[in-house]
What does this fold into?
Amino acid sequence: VGTRSALFTPLPDLGLIIVDEEHDSAFKQQDGFRYNARDLAIKRGQLEQAAVVLGSATPTLETLHAATTGRYGHARLTTRPDGTHPPTVETVDTRVHTPDEGLTAPLLDAMQQTLAAGHQCFLLLNRRGFARVLACDACGWVAECPDCDARLTIHAHNPRAVCHLCGHHGPRPERCPECGEPLAQRGLGTQRLEQALARHFPGIPLIRLDRDSIRHKGALEEALDRIRRLNAAIVVGTQMLAKGHDFPQVGLVGVIDVDQGLFSVDLRATENTLQLIVQAAGRAGRGSGGGRVLLQTGHPDHPLIRGLNAADYPAMVAPLLAEREAAGMPPHGHLALVRVEAGDAETTRRHAERIATHLRDTATEGLRVLGPAPAPRHRVNRRFREQILLQSTRRNPLHESLARARHAWQADDLPRGTRIAIDIDPVSLA
It folds into this structure.
């Protein structure tokens, strides 16, 4: 039993490899030696003639497509181990019920009923900190990281503003440096939601699970043990709430804000959002008292939101698969990213254009070369990033073109500090 690196453990008589929660993007090593442990598990199973089981309630579109088309065997579990069925998802239209610090009246009413029955409430907000933005309403100034294309996040018990990309932190100003007016804290994080819940439900045990609350060794185990020992309680946290925990006392799961993932520029953002909702909903109703799931959204008519009520994951992702097929994207095509990083924007752009030109000049039929273009986060930790996207219906042209381009740029005299990386089957385009 181990993390992704356990895949490389030498075993004399390997017969079975189990990849649990195969959809988890953490199986992809993003830096240095890039690999996807799920895909290498399949390859190792093939080489050693061992069975491979990919387990997930929300498989990736690539895995689901391989299973439904017969490339993989497909075993569907229609009930939980205890015989219960997952609860249906109810939506709360935030255009009708305006949230106050993330909480709508229907959600608060459902929480009150759940707590009165002696059950727990889980609230998912995949954004840590207190406020996302420190801004001036008078002149429009916004606190931004000096080293990244990112805004600074405000934390409740820390008088500093923090960048979650590079770790930069500095004093939290009280007044606008441009016009001197008081600054406003905008946006919602788990810390702010925790404070709001404490006001609404005084005396109710309240636990927050996010990266900031479990910094010391053993903190996560302590929090999980406390949750299992409590009856009526509220747990608020980020995506770690949805990581396969079994809490029989959970009677209500509330997803505070799901809309940010429905309209992202990233290829897999909507898929990941849907997986997170289904995984979080799976925490409810595991005991004898049943459960409810409330999803706060300003887009209740979105096809993916409507599909959540069907409790049929393949049916939910059918629109996404249709979009991918029309665009030639995975699982109906293959992708690779070439990322160029340097300490100044002009050097980065120039070398990215040179690589893209070489790829286009040597591309075989069926290979598309898109870019270069600035990465969605163009500057991170004082380094600029450009990326080139390669798209092909077959793997061979993709790998052949990348091999030729790699030999070409390795012969170049790259400026010091310039880095070029190839990412095959990227899990994120951001």
Summary: DSSP finds eleven helices and 19 strands in the chain. The longest strand covers residues 367-380.
